[in-house]
Amino acid sequence: MNVIYSLLIFFAAVLTTDSVDNGYDIGDIATDFNLENIDGKFVSLSDFNDAKGFIIVFTCNTCPYAVLYEDRIEALNKKYASQGYPLIAIMPNNVQTKPGDSMKSMKQRAIDKGFTFPYLMDAGQKIYPQYGATKTPHVYILESTTRGPVVRYIGGIDDNYKDATLVKTNYVEDAIEALKKGNLIKQTTTKAIGCSIKL
Amino acid sequence: MKYLFILVVSCFLSCKSEVKTEVKLTANLPPLEIHDFSGVEPYLNLEGPKTYVVNFWATWCAPCVKELPYFEAIQAKYIEDVEVILISLDFPRQYESKLKPFLYKHQLKSKVVVLDDPDMNYWIPKVDSNWDGAIPVSLIYNSSKRSFYKRTFAYNELEAELKTFLTTK
Fold first, then answer.
1. DSSP A151
2. If A66 and its partner were Cys, which of A136, A177, B54, B71 is the partner (CB 3.0–4.6 Å)?
3. Per-residue model confidence as pLDDT tens digits over B38-49
4. Domain count, chain A
């Protein structure tokens, strides 16, 4: 049995290194993390015992696209946290490169915008590469299962960054609604412009 | 008190005239060429004799701005064989306040095209199927070769990459 298990791990490793872009695909189990929140406490997925899933958003203070979506991700948390799908924001940039994304600046922005979701610092930039995030904003929707949190959606938030009132398709909302009903998600990956994560 | 008043007034006047000059200077620039994706797509598929170097950038994107001079230098050095096309993703509300002053300040010689198309999930895969939307990215192509780059370039890296195209023709 151990041999089979080792073989499986071996093949999984081979497959992972073979793929062009590292990071998660739809159906992968997402890693948990333990990252510092703007209130000084550390937050993990496992802290949310009753969560049916998560909306993980890699975002930051300094990217104009991320800024355009601030109110919309706050609205997503307000709508879905109470339904069992809390939003967790993770700031992936190197703060030496982007001082405007420091913990102090993150706290200030959260106060100014009235964020009600955890806004975590990916200190040491260890988590975003595991997810395969490349930019801000970049969304991963996870579904809680007995195997762990499964990646169900990767991509953008909606189809109009410029104007929320002109949005035709809300990718994230549609995905969560499908999960709630146990339906298949129609669009499991979407593309959106964002700022490359700063090393 | 009198001197303070003069100081304040003169500062007010000079500040005001500076703003005016700035506006006037950028007003002399040719109008921006702004398209949705259907208007930009032809620039990704030009069939002329040159090698085309396309860069997606924005004035607010620090790594983009850093590598922009290298694209300008390439355009200047290989003017006969290369056409550089800089596709700006600046936001419409900043065309006058940010993009035009930037173009004026840096006196860009390469062609600048502005892409304004919010339906990103539609057009990003049409640029390259492996692009997930992070900028900067670049595309180099000619009649016999085409490559997409999800990276930034130093000058010598960009030139080395370009040379692989110039020799394949």
1. E
2. A136
3. 999 999 999 999
4. 1
